[in-house]
């Protein structure tokens, strides 16, 4: 909204232990070295191109205190399993679309190498499956999220494959 209405001023209301600042993780964040004990980053997949991931990991490490922890959670669009033919087609198109913009659609499987190369230590990796089969509350929420995400990028997908 702030971008759409540059003549207006915006104030956020949040609990008093929460602060938002504007920053770009691929550049220099507005924090000094060794600021945070714990950093959480989730679902940056569609925002970061190949070279941005290395910059991002370096910048997170810079603002982390020595002995601190970083948690990175992201989605692997390249290795979906038990999908039907339509979902397969959609994923191929989605990955192709991301990769045509140099965005790695399977970033989670690259993170170990990238993280080690950046100089992090004690890497722990956990893989979780996100079912989309409407059998539990989490599955239903995941499906709603997924469905609306796909609806939003429909014009882009149609451009590449009208089918
Ligand atoms: C899919 S949302 C995820 C939001 C939240 N982390 C979550 O898990 O619900 C991706 C977020 O990353 C932000 N983002 C994308 N590229 C970024 C960058 N280069 N630096 C900082 N934030 C970025 C977007 O503005 C957006 O808020």
TrEMBL record:
Q: Where is the Methyltransferase domain?
A: 14-76
Pfam families tied to this protein: Methyltransf_31
Q: What is this protein called?
A: Methyltransferase domain-containing protein
* Source organism of this protein record: Mucor flavus
